[in-house]
Amino acid sequence: MTVLLMRLAAPMQSWGAGSRFARRETEMWPTKSGVIGMVAAALGIGRDESLERFSGLRFGVRVDQPGTLMSDYQTARTDAGDMLPLSRRYYLQDAVFLAGLECGDRGELETYRQALAAPHYQLFLGRRSCPPDGPVRTWLVDDDLESALRSIPWCATERYQRSVLLGGDADGHRFAPIVVEPLLGEQDSGSGFVDELMDEPMSFDPRRRQWGPRRYMRLHDETKPEPTVVVPSTTGDVRYGGGRGDTSAFDGDGFFETVAGMDAGVDDADMEEI
Protein backbone atom coordinates (compact mmCIF):
# COMPACT_ATOMS: atom_id res chain seq x y z
CA MET A 1 0.00 0.00 0.00
CA THR A 2 0.97 3.64 -0.46
CA VAL A 3 -0.05 6.59 1.71
CA LEU A 4 -0.30 10.26 0.75
CA LEU A 5 0.44 12.38 3.83
CA MET A 6 -0.56 16.06 4.03
CA ARG A 7 0.40 18.65 6.63
CA LEU A 8 -2.74 20.71 7.35
CA ALA A 9 -2.08 23.97 9.20
CA ALA A 10 -3.79 27.36 9.27
CA PRO A 11 -4.70 30.16 11.67
CA MET A 12 -8.23 28.72 11.61
CA GLN A 13 -9.73 25.41 10.51
CA SER A 14 -13.27 24.05 10.75
CA TRP A 15 -14.23 20.46 9.96
CA GLY A 16 -17.98 20.02 10.20
CA ALA A 17 -19.53 16.56 10.07
CA GLY A 18 -23.13 16.90 11.22
CA SER A 19 -23.98 20.51 12.05
CA ARG A 20 -26.67 22.38 10.15
CA PHE A 21 -28.53 25.68 10.10
CA ALA A 22 -27.63 28.27 12.79
CA ARG A 23 -25.07 26.23 14.76
CA ARG A 24 -21.99 25.12 12.77
CA GLU A 25 -19.71 23.01 14.92
CA THR A 26 -16.31 21.50 14.12
CA GLU A 27 -14.74 18.13 14.80
CA MET A 28 -11.46 18.21 16.70
CA TRP A 29 -9.49 16.90 13.71
CA PRO A 30 -9.96 16.90 9.91
CA THR A 31 -12.83 14.92 8.40
CA LYS A 32 -12.46 12.55 5.47
CA SER A 33 -15.10 14.44 3.47
CA GLY A 34 -13.27 17.72 4.07
CA VAL A 35 -9.88 16.36 3.01
CA ILE A 36 -11.28 14.64 -0.08
CA GLY A 37 -13.11 17.86 -0.93
CA MET A 38 -9.78 19.71 -0.74
CA VAL A 39 -8.11 17.14 -3.02
CA ALA A 40 -11.05 17.33 -5.44
CA ALA A 41 -10.68 21.13 -5.57
CA ALA A 42 -6.97 20.75 -6.30
CA LEU A 43 -7.79 18.38 -9.17
CA GLY A 44 -10.38 20.77 -10.60
CA ILE A 45 -13.32 18.41 -10.01
CA GLY A 46 -16.66 20.24 -10.04
CA ARG A 47 -19.17 19.90 -7.23
CA ASP A 48 -21.63 18.09 -9.50
CA GLU A 49 -19.08 15.52 -10.73
CA SER A 50 -18.79 11.92 -9.55
CA LEU A 51 -16.61 11.05 -6.52
CA GLU A 52 -16.18 7.45 -7.65
CA ARG A 53 -12.39 7.80 -8.00
CA PHE A 54 -12.13 8.43 -4.25
CA SER A 55 -14.00 5.28 -3.19
CA GLY A 56 -11.89 2.75 -1.32
CA LEU A 57 -9.45 5.26 0.14
CA ARG A 58 -8.58 4.64 3.77
CA PHE A 59 -8.22 7.77 5.91
CA GLY A 60 -6.31 8.66 9.07
CA VAL A 61 -5.10 11.69 11.04
CA ARG A 62 -2.29 12.44 13.49
CA VAL A 63 -3.02 15.39 15.78
CA ASP A 64 0.36 17.13 15.96
CA GLN A 65 -0.94 20.37 17.47
CA PRO A 66 -4.55 20.30 18.76
CA GLY A 67 -5.10 24.05 18.78
CA THR A 68 -7.89 25.72 20.72
CA LEU A 69 -11.63 25.99 20.06
CA MET A 70 -13.03 29.39 19.05
CA SER A 71 -16.66 30.42 18.55
CA ASP A 72 -17.80 33.21 16.24
CA TYR A 73 -21.23 34.80 16.64
CA GLN A 74 -22.38 35.99 13.21
CA THR A 75 -25.13 38.33 12.06
CA ALA A 76 -26.14 39.21 8.51
CA ARG A 77 -28.75 41.16 6.56
CA THR A 78 -30.18 40.84 3.08
CA ASP A 79 -29.78 43.61 0.49
CA ALA A 80 -33.28 44.70 1.45
CA GLY A 81 -32.21 45.15 5.08
CA ASP A 82 -33.97 42.10 6.50
CA MET A 83 -32.15 40.22 9.27
CA LEU A 84 -31.00 36.70 8.49
CA PRO A 85 -30.98 34.03 11.20
CA LEU A 86 -28.21 34.51 13.76
CA SER A 87 -25.56 31.80 13.68
CA ARG A 88 -22.72 30.56 15.85
CA ARG A 89 -19.75 28.98 14.09
CA TYR A 90 -16.87 27.10 15.68
CA TYR A 91 -13.24 26.94 14.56
CA LEU A 92 -9.93 25.40 15.62
CA GLN A 93 -7.22 28.01 16.16
CA ASP A 94 -3.52 27.34 15.47
CA ALA A 95 -3.97 23.60 14.93
CA VAL A 96 -1.66 21.38 12.89
CA PHE A 97 -2.58 17.92 11.60
CA LEU A 98 -0.97 15.20 9.54
CA ALA A 99 -3.70 13.62 7.38
CA GLY A 100 -3.22 10.45 5.35
CA LEU A 101 -5.00 8.71 2.45
CA GLU A 102 -4.08 5.05 1.85
CA CYS A 103 -4.49 3.46 -1.57
CA GLY A 104 -3.14 0.52 -3.56
CA ASP A 105 -2.61 2.73 -6.62
CA ARG A 106 0.55 4.80 -6.12
CA GLY A 107 0.01 6.61 -9.42
CA GLU A 108 -3.38 7.91 -8.28
CA LEU A 109 -1.89 9.32 -5.08
CA GLU A 110 0.94 10.90 -7.05
CA THR A 111 -1.71 12.66 -9.15
CA TYR A 112 -3.27 14.03 -5.95
CA ARG A 113 0.12 15.18 -4.72
CA GLN A 114 0.93 17.05 -7.91
CA ALA A 115 -2.51 18.69 -7.87
CA LEU A 116 -2.01 19.89 -4.28
CA ALA A 117 1.28 21.49 -5.35
CA ALA A 118 -0.49 23.43 -8.13
CA PRO A 119 -4.22 23.41 -7.26
CA HIS A 120 -6.90 24.20 -9.84
CA TYR A 121 -9.20 25.82 -7.26
CA GLN A 122 -8.34 27.59 -4.00
CA LEU A 123 -7.73 25.15 -1.13
CA PHE A 124 -9.55 25.46 2.19
CA LEU A 125 -9.27 23.58 5.48
CA GLY A 126 -12.94 22.86 6.03
CA ARG A 127 -14.61 26.21 5.32
CA ARG A 128 -13.96 28.84 2.68
CA SER A 129 -12.78 31.27 5.36
CA CYS A 130 -9.94 28.88 6.31
CA PRO A 131 -7.14 28.81 3.71
CA PRO A 132 -3.95 26.91 4.62
CA ASP A 133 -0.96 28.81 5.99
CA GLY A 134 1.02 28.19 2.81
CA PRO A 135 1.57 25.43 0.25
CA VAL A 136 0.29 22.10 1.59
CA ARG A 137 3.38 19.99 2.29
CA THR A 138 3.02 16.35 1.20
CA TRP A 139 4.83 13.00 1.35
CA LEU A 140 4.30 9.66 -0.40
CA VAL A 141 5.13 6.68 1.84
CA ASP A 142 5.12 3.05 0.70
CA ASP A 143 3.68 1.51 3.87
CA ASP A 144 0.40 0.95 5.65
CA LEU A 145 -1.57 3.91 7.01
CA GLU A 146 -0.64 3.45 10.67
CA SER A 147 3.10 3.08 10.00
CA ALA A 148 3.13 6.03 7.60
CA LEU A 149 1.48 8.32 10.16
CA ARG A 150 4.10 7.29 12.72
CA SER A 151 7.05 7.77 10.37
CA ILE A 152 6.98 11.52 9.66
CA PRO A 153 8.72 13.94 12.07
CA TRP A 154 6.58 16.19 14.24
CA CYS A 155 4.75 18.74 12.05
CA ALA A 156 3.74 21.13 14.85
CA THR A 157 5.12 24.66 14.87
CA GLU A 158 8.52 25.18 16.46
CA ARG A 159 6.99 27.24 19.27
CA TYR A 160 4.54 24.46 20.19
CA GLN A 161 7.21 21.76 20.04
CA ARG A 162 9.45 23.71 22.40
CA SER A 163 6.60 24.35 24.83
CA VAL A 164 5.82 20.62 25.02
CA LEU A 165 9.45 19.48 25.24
CA LEU A 166 10.18 22.01 27.98
CA GLY A 167 7.09 20.95 29.92
CA GLY A 168 5.08 24.09 29.23
CA ASP A 169 1.99 22.40 27.75
CA ALA A 170 -0.62 23.06 30.42
CA ASP A 171 -3.35 21.16 28.56
CA GLY A 172 -1.46 17.86 28.72
CA HIS A 173 -1.28 17.23 24.97
CA ARG A 174 2.12 15.61 25.25
CA PHE A 175 2.29 13.61 22.05
CA ALA A 176 0.30 13.24 18.89
CA PRO A 177 -2.65 10.80 18.98
CA ILE A 178 -3.56 8.92 15.78
CA VAL A 179 -7.12 8.31 14.54
CA VAL A 180 -7.65 5.90 11.63
CA GLU A 181 -10.33 3.95 9.81
CA PRO A 182 -10.09 0.37 11.14
CA LEU A 183 -9.55 -2.57 8.86
CA LEU A 184 -12.39 -5.01 8.32
CA GLY A 185 -12.91 -7.05 11.51
CA GLU A 186 -10.62 -4.85 13.59
CA GLN A 187 -13.45 -3.93 15.96
CA ASP A 188 -13.20 -7.35 17.55
CA SER A 189 -9.42 -7.50 17.72
CA GLY A 190 -8.98 -5.33 20.80
CA SER A 191 -7.22 -2.58 18.83
CA GLY A 192 -9.51 0.12 20.18
CA PHE A 193 -13.07 1.38 20.50
CA VAL A 194 -14.64 1.89 17.07
CA ASP A 195 -17.09 4.75 16.55
CA GLU A 196 -19.02 5.96 13.52
CA LEU A 197 -19.45 9.32 11.80
CA MET A 198 -21.49 10.41 8.76
CA ASP A 199 -18.34 11.39 6.92
CA GLU A 200 -17.97 9.22 3.79
CA PRO A 201 -18.51 11.66 0.88
CA MET A 202 -20.91 10.44 -1.80
CA SER A 203 -21.85 13.71 -3.52
CA PHE A 204 -20.80 17.37 -3.16
CA ASP A 205 -23.57 18.58 -5.49
CA PRO A 206 -25.29 21.51 -3.66
CA ARG A 207 -28.66 20.16 -4.82
CA ARG A 208 -28.15 16.73 -3.23
CA ARG A 209 -25.19 16.57 -0.88
CA GLN A 210 -24.77 13.04 0.45
CA TRP A 211 -22.56 11.37 3.05
CA GLY A 212 -22.41 7.80 4.24
CA PRO A 213 -21.29 6.35 7.59
CA ARG A 214 -17.56 5.93 8.23
CA ARG A 215 -15.92 4.02 11.08
CA TYR A 216 -12.93 5.38 12.98
CA MET A 217 -10.89 4.58 16.07
CA ARG A 218 -8.03 6.02 18.10
CA LEU A 219 -4.93 3.88 18.30
CA HIS A 220 -3.99 2.69 21.79
CA ASP A 221 -0.27 3.30 21.50
CA GLU A 222 0.84 6.91 21.95
CA THR A 223 3.01 7.83 19.00
CA LYS A 224 6.04 9.99 19.71
CA PRO A 225 7.01 11.71 16.46
CA GLU A 226 10.57 12.93 16.12
CA PRO A 227 10.80 16.64 17.09
CA THR A 228 12.46 19.06 14.68
CA VAL A 229 13.63 21.82 17.03
CA VAL A 230 16.61 22.73 19.18
CA VAL A 231 15.77 22.99 22.88
CA PRO A 232 18.15 24.82 25.25
CA SER A 233 19.17 23.03 28.44
CA THR A 234 21.53 23.60 31.36
CA THR A 235 24.07 21.27 29.75
CA GLY A 236 23.87 22.85 26.31
CA ASP A 237 21.43 22.87 23.42
CA VAL A 238 19.71 19.57 22.68
CA ARG A 239 19.03 19.10 18.97
CA TYR A 240 15.97 17.02 18.10
CA GLY A 241 15.54 15.55 14.61
CA GLY A 242 17.22 17.37 11.78
CA GLY A 243 16.55 20.94 12.87
CA ARG A 244 15.13 23.34 10.30
CA GLY A 245 15.88 20.99 7.45
CA ASP A 246 12.93 18.82 8.55
CA THR A 247 10.41 21.64 8.85
CA SER A 248 8.29 23.48 6.32
CA ALA A 249 9.52 26.79 4.97
CA PHE A 250 6.25 28.22 6.26
CA ASP A 251 6.49 26.64 9.71
CA GLY A 252 6.20 28.54 12.96
CA ASP A 253 8.85 31.09 13.86
CA GLY A 254 10.65 30.78 10.52
CA PHE A 255 7.72 32.33 8.64
CA PHE A 256 7.55 35.41 10.84
CA GLU A 257 11.34 35.80 10.88
CA THR A 258 11.38 35.70 7.09
CA VAL A 259 8.62 38.31 6.84
CA ALA A 260 10.59 40.52 9.23
CA GLY A 261 13.62 40.26 6.95
CA MET A 262 15.65 38.01 9.21
CA ASP A 263 17.63 35.03 7.97
CA ALA A 264 15.73 32.00 9.30
CA GLY A 265 18.00 29.46 7.63
CA VAL A 266 15.44 28.20 5.10
CA ASP A 267 17.16 27.04 1.94
CA ASP A 268 16.11 25.76 -1.48
CA ALA A 269 16.03 22.16 -0.24
CA ASP A 270 13.20 23.03 2.16
CA MET A 271 11.13 24.48 -0.66
CA GLU A 272 11.59 21.40 -2.85
CA GLU A 273 9.92 19.19 -0.22
CA ILE A 274 6.70 21.20 -0.19
TrEMBL record:
Region described as Disordered: 225-244
Keywords for this protein: Antiviral defense
Keyword match Oxidoreductase: no
Alphabetical list of InterPro entries matching this protein: CRISPR-assoc_prot_Cas5, CRISPR-assoc_prot_Cas5_N, CRISPR-assoc_prot_CasD
Highest taxon of source: Bacteria
Signal peptide, first to last residue: none
Keyword Acyltransferase: no
Designated name of the protein: Type I-E CRISPR-associated protein Cas5/CasD
Organism: Bifidobacterium santillanense
The organism's taxonomic lineage, starting at the top: Bacteria, Bacillati, Actinomycetota, Actinomycetes, Bifidobacteriales
